[in-house]
Amino acid sequence: MAAVTAGSGPGSGPAGSPEATSGSTGGGGWRRPHGPLQRYYGPSTAEAAEAAPDPTDINGPHFDPEVFMTKVRNECPLGQLLAREAALGREIRALDSDMQTLLYENYNKFISATDTIRKMKVDFRHMEAEMDDLAANMAAISASSARVSAALQDRHRRGAQLAGVQALLRKLQALVEVPGRLRCWAGTEPARALRCHARARAVLRHYRHLPSFRAIEDESHAIMAELAQRLRTRLREEKLDPKELTECVEMLLQLEEPAEELSEEFLSQAGARLEAELAALEAELPAADPSGTATTPPPPASDILDFAGADAAAALVARAARERVDRYLRALQTFFLGCLGDVRQALAAPRPPGKEGPGLPDLLATLAASVLGQLKAVLAYVQLFTARDVAFASLPYFKGEFCVTAVREGLVVAFVRWLCRTARGFADGPAERGAPAAPPALLLLLARLCLDYENSTISYILTLTDEQFPPQDSGPAVTPGPALCAEARAAAQRLLDHYVQVQGAAVAQMLRKSVETRDWLGTVEPRNVRAVMKRVVEDITAIDVQVGQLFEEGVRRAQSSDSSRRAFSVYSSSRAPGRYAPSYTPSAPMDTHLLSNIQKLFSERIDIFSPVEFNKVSVLTGIIKISLKTLLECVRLRTLGRFGLQQVQVDGHYLQLYLWRFASDERVVQGLLDEVAASAAHRCLDPVPMEHSVVELICERG
């Protein structure tokens, strides 16, 4: 062992051996070799030519663990081995910390990859089992495949021949049956007989040199000649109406009858009917006066309704008006759904770098203006039923019931209620029907649309409708405007609450995964803020910008002067250890669980899922409460070591530095973070907090 120690100077051993390493560090320890760079760039040509295979080179391609361990045990002293073991432990912990940091920075990919891998493993097991079964059956199948293939080819060839023969037989059978079908249809269905003869005529002409086909063709011609004679006889009947007369002429043309003769007969028949109708009209004229002067004819009818019975005509017009209003309502609903589809497409469209698409205010203005313009156009169309120059506009129905029941209630009020239900369905429907969830930006936009309807649009629409279709004082009851406004506000409130829940759940999912996937007992001493906390602050900032486009700022509680510099301790401020020292010194360590419960009795209760107000501060406060409450519940389920507690302390202080400015009251953020720190301390096996100055330095550097 002394010889080994004496010869461990610089360059006394091969690369990667204990001697070389100890010499390079002056006997003070091991240094990490530059193996990864060497493996990436490769050795130089001269080095590759001169270097001999060395099984003890830990970074070389010929490394042999057994030879290396034998050499180390024989040549290195015990102190050097222990130092190397400690260095390896530090390197492993550092690598583990780097790997965890990399994992947290890519947690979304890791989560989806974990689920995908789990599903792939299950599918792979099923595939392995199926492959085993297939392998067992392949031998038997391959033995008979050749025979089956030959038999199938022969059968396919014969089947093709048989199919051709059968098709030919069917065609021949159809041709043989043509005369019988023509004879059957010529008397009852002449049009069908003509279609049958037209399909068979070309084939019969092509094969008429064969005796059998010539006989079929002659018989068919005789039948069609009889049909043409019957049609000419029918053409001369006086009882035929114009439609039947036209059908007779068309069928005779299909039978290749002379067109000139048919036109002459058609014109003569039509002229005779026209002369008869003119004679009937002349007979209805008033008779001439014996003195030689004609009596004064009655005035012409003023409207088409004068020729109908009054009650039946009014009922018919009223029904047509109601059906038209229902059609306009469906058209409005379809138009609104189309506008929503355009909005969703605009929100989901990818944005090229440096080019921004339309913002939420522009999309909201376009949607509201399009829907309101379409509603005005529909009201203008419906107003034609009540125009003064229309005869039936003077009917009692169009002066009272039509204006209230059909237009105001059946069209305008029904559309507004349907719009509110449809918008609210994006918050209530996906979880029940299993449909894909709406994007958060769409929920926010629809909430603002319903709120604008409640504030101004509904009253404007109802006023416009009452001006164009004035209701009667004694008419049916109408839906009051405040009732519609209340429905619109309820829809807006539900949409905004759902938006807070969706965004809060997204941030909470990040925090939950970051807590569940970390080893809090074996983690190293914290040196920086975890990447997931930075991502949380970035997401909250993006949500703040998104909400600020559609909602007002809101009112914040007066902030303290040192909100961003407030000390974040693992003990709540009401139970700091030095606070009770002047007046009370316990004889035994006080139970921190008891202190925590006492402190909760006197602290203000935080309602996590309370309804939010229609302003940006309230929305952000709701999202932050859901996120931090999730972090608190996840920490309560973990067991932490000293460094795990300190990491929670660093993360909490970082969140406190940035999140307080988004909340309506900084005490909400501080209270929840205090509970997180207290829970971490309760769950810690060695609760030794980090110095606050060190925490601040890490957070400022992060």
UniProtKB/TrEMBL annotation:
Keywords recorded for this protein, A-Z: Endosome, Golgi apparatus, Lipid transport, Protein transport, Transport
Single biological process term from Gene Ontology: Golgi vesicle transport
GO cellular component, one term: membrane
Keyword Transmembrane helix annotated: no
Pfam families linked to this entry: VPS51_Exo84_N (PF08700)
Keyword Transport in record: yes
Region (Disordered): 1-41
Subcellular location as annotated: Golgi apparatus, trans-Golgi network; Recycling endosome
Function comment: Involved in retrograde transport from early and late endosomes to the late Golgi. The GARP complex is required for the maintenance of protein retrieval from endosomes to the TGN, acid hydrolase sorting, lysosome function, endosomal cholesterol traffic and autophagy. Acts as component of the EARP complex that is involved in endocytic recycling.
Family, per entry: Belongs to the VPS51 family.
Quaternary structure note: Component of the Golgi-associated retrograde protein (GARP) complex. Component of the endosome-associated retrograde protein (EARP) complex.
Protein name: Vacuolar protein sorting-associated protein 51 homolog
Taxonomic source organism: Sinosuthora webbiana
Gene: Vps51
